[in-house]
Every structure is written in structure tokens, then in C-alpha cells.
Amino acid sequence: MRHTVPAGLNRKESDVYLRLDPARIPQHIAIIMDGNGRWARRRHMPRVAGHREGVASVRDTVETAACIGIPALTLYAFSEENWKRRPKTEVDFLMRLLCHFLKAEIKALKKNNVRLNFIGRQHELPESVQREMEEASLATSKNTGLLLTLALNYSARSEIVDAFRSLAEAASRNGGLAHMEVDEQSISDHLYTRGLPDPDLVIRTSGEMRLSNFLLWQLAYSEIYVTQTLWPDFRGVQLLESIEEYQKRDRRYGGLGPDGHNRPHPSHRTHAEAKR
């Protein structure tokens, strides 16, 4: 039985959506947005051109996610390491681009009923950026649809360090460290993402096979989807294709399949197996 295509999808997106099971849409998708520099280099353009085009990818991806009813989307926008490994001119441009994005997209976020959230060490960002973040968060706070989280000045290891500091501080206010209880739930409750479900699916663009210090605690059982598409070329149709692949997988969380065997899905064959 064919299901109804949500309003707002174009023809290509609609074609992919019709192959999906709407009851099995991921509740939380995380994306490592990578490839802006390579996109620009292949076109003999400055790196900043790739970042500028990447904003269009964010806009299109968020709109598609909102259209199909994904509850939560987290985008890795700027890492702590970016301060150290990128030229100052590029970092300064990224900060200006972020401010422009936060100002320019409020209207579209409201139209799509998207609520904006941020994770990372926000206090280390420039004050101008912090002000725009606060205003954008406040302006979208009453929206009830997709929760869009931007990871800015983010590091998963720093997040875990901050969680343990928070645990220790809470214990010191409650009788001392002897009263500190540490288990998986208490750690999760002190992470930046507290209140969010762990991602069902993490997408990495540009073909790189690493997590890059992103949501290391939360991605313990997430399905990983890597696409060769560079982030500036990523659009809503690629998001839907990643969900299509996700729905082919058998999520066992360390258990066995229905037949009692830990047999991989055919789509998980190695390259060597696929060539036989």
C-alpha cells in the first residue's frame, strides 16, 4: 500500500520517500558535515566558497527532515580542534557566516516549526556569536517540530570531561564525593545532549571513515552511513537515501537476530565479498 508523500518534497525526494517505511523513520539523526574544502578545491575556488555553499545544504537538509517528521537532527558545525587546525582567516569567516546564518534562517525555521538548540563550549565562542545563538534559540523556542541541534566549539571528549566535572560538583553540594553515584544514566544526564535520545543514524559525508570526536558516548549503537557526496552537494534526497539504507539494517544492540545467529545484513558485505 502506497503511503502519502509529505508536502514540500520535490519529485526526486518523493520517489525515495515512497520506498521508505514511515513507521521506521529514525528519531534522531546526526550528521558529520565534511568536504567543504575539497568541494571548493575541485572547482578552483577558495575554501570559503565551500563553506558558503554548505549553508545551502544545511537549509535543504533541515527542511526535508522537518517535512518527513524527524524529531531530532544534530549537525557537527564547528569542532574545538577547528580553532587550532584552521587558518585564523577561515575561522573568522566561519564565525561571520554562522552569525549570518542565524539571522537569515529564523524566518525559515519558524515556517518549518524547527526549534534551535546548541551543544559545545559556547562560552568560548566570540560574544557576537553567543548573542546571535541566544536570540535564535529564543526566537524558535516555542516551535514544536524538529529539534535542530548545532554542535559548535564541540568535542566529545570535552563533553565527557564536563559531564564528570558536573557530576563531581553536584556531589560536592550533596555531602561530598562519597555520595557520588556514577552509572550510564547519571553520565547521560550530565552530557550536553541530556534529554535527547541517542542518534539512531549518523551520516558522514565526503567518504571519510572516522567519527572525528563527535558524540562518542551517544553513538555507541548508532548505525553509520558514509557517503562519498561532499557536504555542499548533499541535499534532502541524499538524506532520504541514507534513511533508506538505515531501514535495510537489522539493529541488534549486541544481541542475535531472529534466527539466533549474528549474521550481517547482505548490504554489509565487505568489498572483497561483493567482488566475488
Task: Explain the overall architecture.
The structure is a single chain. The protein has helices spanning 11-17, 36-42, 47-67, 80-85, 88-104, 106-111, 127-139, 156-172, 184-188, 236-247, 271-275, and strands at residues 28-32, 72-79, 115-119, 147-154, 201-204, 223-226. The model is unreliable at 264-276 (pLDDT under 50). Helix 2 (36-42) packs across helix 3 (47-67). By secondary structure, the chain is an alpha/beta fold. It is 42% helix and 12% strand. The radius of gyration is 20 Å and the shape is globular. The chain has a domain at 24-154 and 197-247: Undecaprenyl pyrophosphate synthetase, CATH 3.40.1180.10. A six-stranded parallel sheet has the order 3-4-2-1-5-6, sandwiched between helices. Strand 3 (115-119), helix 7 and strand 4 form a beta-alpha-beta unit.
Quick structural summary:
By secondary structure, the protein is α/β, with parallel strands linked by helices.
Structural class: alpha/beta
Q: What is the CATH third-level topology name of the domain at 24-154 and 197-247?
A: Undecaprenyl pyrophosphate synthetase
Give the strand line-up of the largest sheet: 3-4-2-1-5-6
Shape verdict: globular
Number of strands: 6
CATH arch. level architecture of the domain at 24-154 and 197-247: 3-Layer(aba) Sandwich
CATH class of the domain at 24-154 and 197-247: Alpha Beta
The radius of gyration over CA amounts to 20 Å
Proportion in helices: 40-55%
Q: Give the amount of beta strand, in percent.
A: 5-15%
Q: State the separation between the terminal residues, measured CA to CA.
A: 36 Å
Largest sheet: 6 strands, parallel
Round the mean pLDDT to the nearest integer and report it. Answer: 91
Series of H and E elements: HEHHEHHHEHEHHEEHH
If helices are DSSP runs of H or I spanning 4 or more residues, what is the number of helices? 11
- Tell me the name of the CATH homologous superfamily of the domain at 24-154 and 197-247: Decaprenyl diphosphate synthase-like
- The parts where pLDDT drops under 50 for at least 5 residues are 264-276
